[in-house]
Amino acid sequence: MVYLLAELSEARMDIGSVILLVVGAVVVIFVLGIFFGSFFTVEQAHAKIIQRLGKFSRIAQPGLNFKLPYLDTVVANISLQVQQLDVKVETKTKDNVFVIIPIAVQYKVAPDKVYDAFYKLSDPVKQIESFVYNCILGHVPKLTLDETFDQQSQIAVDVKNSLDASMAEFGYSIVKSLITDIVPDEKVKAAMNDINAAAREREATVSRAETEKLLLVKKAEADAESKRLQGEGIANQRKAIIEGLRDSIEKFSASVEGATPKDAMSMVLLTQYFDTLKEVAGTNRSNTILMPHTPNALAELMEQFRTTLITGELATKGADGQGAPAPSPSPRS
User: Fold this and answer.
1) Model's pTM, two decimal places?
2) Using one digit for the tens of pLDDT, what is the confidence trace for 115-128?
3) Per CATH, is 82-184 categorized as 3.30.479.30?
4) pLDDT at res. 106
5) Alpha carbon distances (Å) from 319 to 101, 246, 316
6) Distance CA 239, CA 247 (A)
7) Which of 1, 175, 193, 328 could form a disulfide with 106 if both were Cys (CB 3.0 to 4.6 A apart)?
């Protein structure tokens, strides 16, 4: 009996120890929960929303912060960094061309409006997209496709200003709005490329025609100048020949007593005639010519040469104002 009582007493002591251990563990856990739950950190360029029993309490700033354990709760971690939202808007231009306009919207939460950014908007991304669609659909349908390309930067500025004015109420600041591209339909793009290619080909054709025209004009001017200089050279050559013949005739008449200028002219022409025959016969690159060679024919040819040279001399003097116009050559005998 005594043994049984001792066993029961010992068992009661063990149960009490276990209970004490459990209670002690719970207290330790509670204390640790209070200690570790009272402190938290906030990263740089971030802010945390603290609620106490479901009601907004305060906004925690970057660094180590304190809160009441089991009463205060961190419900949101708001980033204050610049974020980017890519939106693609499909719309129609004034000339009935469907285009896709990708827009990159860079935005951030204003540090002094973290409360508005968290509590006033349930889905800020969708809200920004809606404002972008509204702004683009209010601008692009009033412009043609070419005007849309030309005013691309202005459309981006309008989107930025419109978003900034609308989202400021909700604690968001629009840093920049960028239209990265304007993408028309592939068929429209191909047609635009064909139009540009045709226009450039037309300009190239006009340029080539102008170049050819300039070359032809310059060539004609050069040809005319060449012929003018050639004519002057021939005229000077003939004038020199005539003057040389005149000097030779005068010297021959002075040297030979009783000789007339006609005799001297005949001698000179006959000498030149034989010199020409000798030159033709002495080269293999000259063309074959047929000339009369009988005495009567030579006399007639000499008379023709003399008449032609005298006529040319008189014509030259008449052109220089030194004499009357040349008379017509005498008929052949």
Assistant:
1) 0.51
2) 999 998 888 888 88
3) yes
4) 92
5) 83, 18, 5
6) 12
7) 175
